[in-house]
Amino acid sequence: MSAILEAAQQPEYSVEPILVLSNRPDAAGLTYAEQAGAEAIAIDHKPYGKDREAFERAMQDALNQHKIEMVVLAGFMRILTPWFVSHWEGRMINIHPSLLPKYPGLHTHKRAIEAGDKEAGCSVHWVTEGVDEGDVIAQARVPILPNDTAEALAERVLPAEHDLYPKAVQIAAAQILAR
User: Fold this and answer.
1) What is the pLDDT, as a whole number, of residue 75?
2) Which fold has domain 76-179?
């Protein structure tokens, strides 16, 4: 999120971040977003208990109020319901720390090392009902070194994510506008 907000400060960046929405009121990104000039709000998911769709309807209301045209997930670690995903079909993207379609879900770096892969990386993809199953928009590759740990690999992939995501946001936005 911070990399996207920083990129948006550049005059040549073609996407305007309007709103940063978090499900965690204590998220540090909310303060960062406000400092970067984006409105930031939290809708705590906890009061909704297990009613995920009710929480997402509250998010949808906020997105509608701000006239949001595209959702960019960054650090949002909740699986979204089919109701929400279908509403944003073709207008919601996510970043994932693997070279999809390899290693959807969790523990991606550990799984890549254990598989003997020579490289890892990150992917930005369209969000679909299946976890990390949407078409890939862009990827960045990072070599896996001989004595890598999952933590060391994650540290090397993170800068690639920060470089890739703002670029992929522009690619996705252009595709949305071209429809």
Assistant:
1) 87
2) Rossmann fold (3.40.50)
